[in-house]
Design a protein that fits this description.
- Helix 2 (about 90-110) packs across helix 4 (about 180-205) and helix 2 (about 90-110) crosses helix 5.
- The protein has two domains: about 20-215, Bira Bifunctional Protein, Domain 2 (BirA Bifunctional Protein, domain 2), CATH 3.30.930; about 220-265, Roll (SH3 type barrels).
- Helices cover about 25% and strands about 30% of the residues.
- Strand 6 (about 125-140) and strand 7 form a beta hairpin.
- It has about 260 residues and is an alpha+beta fold.
- The protein has helices spanning about 35-45, 90-110, 170-175, 180-205, 205-215, and strands spanning about 25-30, 50-55, 75-80, 115, 120-125, 125-140, 140-155, 220-225, 230-240, 245-250, 255, 260-265.
Length: about 260
Amino acid sequence: MMSNKLTSNREPQGEGKTSRWSVLLHRLDTVVSTQEEAKRLAESGASEGTAVMAEEQTGGRGRMGRKWHSPPGKGIWMSVVLRPELPLAATPQLTLLAGVAVCTAIRRVTGVEAGIKWPNDLLAGGRKICGILVESSLREGGLHYAIAGIGISANLAVEDYPEELRGVATSLQIESGEPVDRIELAEAVLAELEAWYSVYLREGFAPVREAWESLSVTLGRRIIFGTPENRGEGQAVGLDENGALLLQNERGEIISVLSGEIEII
């Protein structure tokens, strides 16, 4: 199935390339969490790009400790070790970068019109198809490493979801009508992630922001947001140079939201 390329001037970075990171992929059967396995490897000195992919997670999680539904043989449950030299304030940009990489890979391999919901979800047909969780480890006040967790619902059927998720979640197979080659997609994700990460380290956040905005399903929509400090509503108009979501409220003021929960109205 043909893919849809970015609508920005920059082409998908990993197309037609094999990731050097794919040779560092550890394929496991059942784990509690690929995040924990990747952290263990990172603490043991695993090199950047080391990835863990499991057939099943019994304790997979998303943001804020939410459980991630990870049935056996149905998805891509994967975590990747990153070791960037970044200020701590820049680490949220890694979540947006991962979103660009995964969305581009999904579009290229499956043709599904996935889009990014700020800050860490991918949607198809308005329902969640992928979640991204980036967790950081600090040492001596600086970033030691980060683990990018990626959960893609690839070949789940409707009946594979608990009843409470069927209205809000979907899969690549449901959306495309075809089963997905999970290894092909995982390798494409790693290729895109490695390529966009290289662009980010070389050129900064600007090209990632441009690509993110071109793939977003958040921009131009009315948003309700909630943070520990504030709650409000506005129209999403872009990202700032740090990766915060910019909202314009009813008074025309621009509000910067760096973290928290949003709901698209």
